Amino acid sequence: MYERIRNLREDKDLTQTQIAAHLNCSQRIYSNYERGDVDIPTTILIKLADFHNTSTDYLLNRTNVKKPYPSD
């Protein structure tokens, strides 16, 4: 999961600081998420999926389909 989060960030040429600002957390905390040093809270995981326009299942390696699920 952590590699996917890092790859999505790098694909957009964003820094950890930029993503952290979007998530309202520090760069250090975001770095811990990306390295897998701490578990990512569900609310942060949802924000990451929305930001990267993908599903939480993709971030969690439960699917290889990047497209988000359709809204109801």
TrEMBL record:
Signal peptide: none annotated. The keyword Transcription does not apply. Keywords: DNA-binding. The keyword DNA-binding applies. Pfam families: HTH_3. InterPro entries: Cro/C1-type_HTH, Lambda_DNA-bd_dom_sf. This is Transcriptional regulator with XRE-family HTH domain.
